[in-house]
Amino acid sequence: MRHEKAVEILPRTSSCKSNKKIIPANSSLNPQTSEEFPQTAACPRGRTGFSGLLRSLLHIISFPTILPTCRWLNIPTQFSITPSLGRKVTGTLFGHRRGHVTFSVQDDPRSEPVFLVELAVSTSTLVKEMSSGLVRIALECEKGQPPSRGGRPPVRLFNEPMWTMYCNGRTCGYAFSRACTDSDWHVLSTVQTVSVGAGVIPVVDDGRKSGASEGELLYMRARFERVVGNRDSEAFYMLNPDGKGGPELSIFLLRM
């Protein structure tokens, strides 16, 4: 199987482009334990890591919500079709505790998302994975036949509609790229002043609580280093707030 092949990980360099391929890690790579956060939902400055913060987040949902309820903001009517991303981007993971987690990529915390994918795992499952050690997610899709052979026209990597998802070498199911909805934009707008942190967001729709069946809406936001291998491969490495240690979360996009 493809995900079991021995592969090389693209090095993190000062440039966002490289002529090497980006290949996901597999289950032979052992997770490493990282430094722990203080037991708080806010992200303080100093020597910190995400693992302890995420571990404490599993218990924080029984406390009052972290962010105040805000009014719905207007979603932009037109998103950029070919946005220009830099080497550092804002990544947000969010979703109801028992619902699927969504990963959003933005050029900055206040801009529209340029890539939004619903992953094949629940939010609580991903939080537990991250709290126990290093997590590497690979999203793979097929290249397909070229148009000359009756295939579809080529599309940008971010526009691929469906992905096979692997988490630390294990097959998890299918992830789906989608357009940003009103509820997605509500979450991103609510946390737009947060650069790094995790917590709980109150979900309000016309003044009434919703999503109770899937649990509280959790979020985690961080800066990611974006590395482009070629038109068929990109990677996002989560940056630790203290700037030390390796990435605790890496997400690879691969068209094979």
Automatic annotation (TrEMBL):
Biological-process GO terms, alphabetical: hydrotropism
Pfam short name (any one): DUF617
Superkingdom classification of source: Eukaryota
The protein's name: Protein MIZU-KUSSEI 1
